[in-house]
Write a structure and sequence with these properties.
Two copies of one chain form a homodimer. Chain A has 266 residues and is of the alpha+beta class. The first copy, chain A, is 46% helix and 22% strand. In chain A, the strands form three sheets. A five-stranded antiparallel β-sheet of chain A has the order 1-2-9-4-7. A four-stranded antiparallel β-sheet of chain A has the order 3-8-5-6. A three-stranded antiparallel β-sheet of chain A has the order 10-12-11. Chain B binds a DNA duplex (30 and 30 nucleotides) through α8.
Chain lengths: 266, 266
DNA sequence: CGGCCGCTTGAGGTTTTTCAACCTAGGTGG
DNA sequence: CCACCTAGGTTGAAAAACCTCAAGCGGCCG
């Protein structure tokens, strides 16, 4: 673990060094930021000359570290992250996955230190909003402020959805819920809700769902066997969204009707 | 239990007497609000004449309903709530418990409709902040704004902690984590971290933790058998916080050393 | 080309769920 | 005042689900 962290730090600093140099790729205007935040018509009144740093984060490196002083708020511009919470004994739990338009680091506002770490699942880019400048920014551009507030609210709604996913007792139902939720989030990002490309490995999914990674494999096979899914490595196609949702709803294996037969046969 | 009821009754009657008559009991000044929000020195610059409604919520009644238009933001003043998410099929999941200083309804900012419901676990009081007035309020009193932001951040941190609790595989570890977290939150409210009074029933806890309610009973007995806990109905005393934390850390029953013997013996 | 990592599959053992019964406390109505 | 009823909680036994350990396979990077 220590090794990992050292490595990550190394990459981090490298990025930081790199990023101060190439100006055009590493900045973003206020209007573009408003667009990213998704404020409908957020551009209005947002024509200030402010520009915000865009930081590149290499795959596998940590964007921010649990316990470190919370200097920045990040908004994912491209790529994807997992946010993880490390227990005292070193065990890590994957709390959530984040991608475009997701806010990372807001938890740092509570105690001035980040409560979670964030690791890039692929080469990614984030917009950097210094906490110190945040209050002034919000004061100055109410449209940007309300857009940010909505994103925070979305994070909270999302957290509730995660709790809902975890509450499913049966493993296949948990996985189904996870996939349904994933599909919905992809649709929100303008991506196809049917063809998903998993950015994370099975172990991360298992960790996130509180299951053994072998169980993920088996449950996936089950869903495929029922004809609801097609899986090829990390490419995933939803064939029967209704069936998947039905499974997601089911408490403890009680999938209605004859679907059990199908499951048995497969 | 009996004690609780007496206490509640006391508050009740007081309320009933005051309720219709003295308007002052159902309002709160800006300074007091800042105090509730916990802004250190939040009183500074907060001497406006604004007053906020305090709403009473009877035990068992719903403060707000999932799907309803989100008109208000609430801050718990006294009492306690459970927030629940109702699935399409009517199944309800207990997402979290909330009490003094917790924010309820912020999720409504995302889609203008509440994403969760909130039900009072006992007779409670909340401060009502109309969403419509919120932006202006925040603009006008930055101290109040930042305090509110911190509370929101706390909600997010709390959501992460819940996910962490749920990630524990073993039932007794989940319960132990829940209790440790509960204890910490009670301490945050100025209550004793050792003597807890459960406001929710076993079924709600079970639902919240994704376990059968029988398992809660059994796991509680296990923790008591190990000498870490004392349980009498809903009154709960933590005898060995270190042991409890050790159990909370353990993955799948592997409590180190000789504690298993104790467990067996009990 | 070899090693490593991610993923899958199998078998056994343990935990947890489920179904059922029983018990207590509190409220209600005769 | 007592009987009754309900909700909440506990306990037991059987069955199902999941985790662990172990092995095998395939792709990818060095």
């Amino acid at each position: 673990m220590a090794i990992v962290h050292c490595l990550d730090r190394g990459i981090d600093t490298h990025r930081l060094l790199c990023h101060s140099r190439c100006a055009d790729a590493s900045q973003i205007g206020l209007g573009e930021l408003a667009g990213l935040l998704g404020g409908a018509g957020g551009g209005a009144g947002c024509n200030g000359g402010d520009r915000f740093a865009v930081q590149r984060v290499a795959r596998g490196s940590t964007l921010l570290l649990q316990g470190a002083p919370a200097h920045n708020l990040y908004i994912v511009h491209s790529g994807s992250f997992k946010s993880i919470k490390t227990a005292e004994d070193g065990y890590e739990h994957v709390l959530a996955f984040a991608w475009r338009r997701d806010v990372i680091g807001y938890d740092g506002l509570y105690r001035e230190h980040y409560a979670f770490s964030a690791v890039a699942l692929e080469d990614s880019r984030v917009v950097v909003l210094p906490m110190s400048a945040l209050a002034a920014l919000r004061q100055q551009w109410p449209a940007l402020d309300s857009a940010l507030q909505r994103l925070i609210a979305r994070q909270i709604v999302h957290a509730g959805e995660i709790a809902e996913v975890m509450s499913a007792v049966a493993a296949d139902a948990r996985l189904a819920r996870f996939l349904v939720q994933l599909s919905a989030r992809m649709a929100e990002c303008g991506q196809s809700p049917r063809r998903l490309l998993l950015r994370m490995n099975r172990r991360d999914i298992a960790n996130h769902l509180g299951l053994a990674h072998e169980t993920i494999s088996r449950s996936l096979r089950l869903l495929v066997g029922r004809g609801w899914l097609r899986v090829a490595n990390r490419e995933l196609e939803i064939l029967d969204a209704a069936g998947l949702r039905r499974c997601a709803r089911s408490t403890r294996g009680a999938v209605d009707d004859g679907e059990r037969m199908l499951a048995r046969a497969a």
